[in-house]
């Protein structure tokens, strides 16, 4: 029998070593490519603003910021940081500069610096609007009937969806920041996908997105916006209407929106409500930390109400 030479015994480990090195290089190249792609997808803006509130979590601040050319009007909104040290040493009323970083689905601030110059006091003038007195809604309350117009220009009432669970969220189409209105729209889309993927899931449910910027968000604008999210009109409608009705329903859920005429932008918080199949309020999600799965599960349970 012919024996392997010592050279052959040395060759085999060498081959494995070369293959391992090649694999490591490939992995490193893929990692660099991914990181480069991520950096390319980020948009960065240098912004100045005034700290209006610092939250207990140490990483979130409400900031009244200046207009960001070609991106966003001046507004007051909550920003998160990835590093709690970013906000250390700041106080309400401080004038700051920072970098706002946005990706397709996320946004945050970094490189926050306190400026020595005192903030310039600009009077804030809110647009006056006629409102009607309404009571806050809480879980178990019967949802009042409201009339709106959908993205096809068709008049609808909430009572048209009798027997169906509803998820209602509030946006304005010009809002560009990923964690605000775009996140609400993406979350509804993903919640819809989750429900449809579940075996034996109920079919008596519908999603509603209501604008609080009816002057800009006409049915035509809403239709174009909805198309961007590849919506299914049999499952999801985009609504506008009279400002007095929009103000009433938003106030009942704690959704606030106001126009700062001096700054020229809309300011708002975030609310998403679930109404059960019996027309009663089931859940009101605050902010943007809930997940599409959270919403989907609430809709599924709401659809079972008898």
N-to-C SSE string, H for helix and E for strand: HEEEEEEEEHEHEHEEEEH
How many DSSP H or I helices?
5
Radius of gyration: 25 Å
Remind me, CATH topology of the largest domain? Glutaredoxin
> Strands of the largest sheet, in order across it?
7-6-10-9-8-13-14
Percentage of residues in strands: 25-35%
Cα distance spanning the termini: 83 Å
What does this protein look like?
The protein is an alpha+beta fold and 306 residues long. It folds into 2 domains: 43-114, OB fold (Dihydrolipoamide Acetyltransferase, E2P) (Beta Barrel); 147-303, Glutaredoxin. Helix content is 28%, strand content 28%. It is built from 5 helices and 14 strands. The chain has a 7-stranded mixed sheet with strand order 7-6-10-9-8-13-14, with helices on both faces. A hairpin with a 5-residue loop joins strand 1 and strand 2. Helix 2 packs across helix 5.
């Amino acid at each position: 029998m012919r024996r392997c030479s010592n050279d052959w015994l040395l060759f085999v480990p060498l081959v494995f070593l070369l293959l391992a090195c090649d694999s490591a290089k490939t992995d490193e190249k893929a990692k660099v490519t991914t990181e480069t792609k991520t950096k390319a997808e980020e948009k960065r803006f240098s912004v100045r603003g005034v700290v209006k509130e610092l939250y207990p979590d140490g990483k979130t601040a409400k900031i009244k910021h200046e207009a960001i050319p070609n991106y966003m009007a001046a507004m007051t909104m909550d920003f998160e940081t990835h590093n709690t040290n970013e906000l250390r040493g700041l106080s309400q009323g401080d004038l700051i500069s920072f970098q706002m970083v946005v990706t397709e689905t996320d946004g945050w601030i970094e490189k926050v610096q306190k400026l020595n110059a005192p903030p310039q006091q600009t009077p804030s003038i809110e647009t006056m609007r006629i409102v009607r007195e309404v009571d806050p809604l809480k879980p178990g309350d019967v949802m009042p009937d409201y009339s709106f117009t959908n993205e096809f220009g068709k008049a609808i009432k909430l009572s048209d969806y009798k027997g169906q669970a509803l998820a209602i969220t509030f946006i304005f189409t010009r809002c560009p920041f990923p964690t605000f209105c775009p996140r609400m729209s993406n979350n509804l889309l993903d919640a819809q996908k989750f429900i449809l993927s579940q075996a034996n899931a109920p079919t008596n449910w519908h999603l509603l997105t209501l604008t609080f910027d009816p002057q800009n968000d006409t049915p035509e604008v809403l239709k174009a916006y909805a198309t961007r999210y590849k919506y299914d009109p049999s499952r999801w409608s985009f609504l506008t209407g009279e400002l007095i009705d929009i103000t009433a329903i938003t106030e009942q859920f704690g959704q606030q929106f106001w126009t700062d005429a001096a700054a020229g932008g809309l300011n708002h918080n975030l609310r998403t409500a679930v109404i059960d199949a019996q027309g009663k309020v089931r859940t009101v999600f605050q902010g943007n930390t809930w997940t599409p799965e959270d919403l989907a599960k609430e809709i599924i349970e709401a659809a079972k109400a008898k």
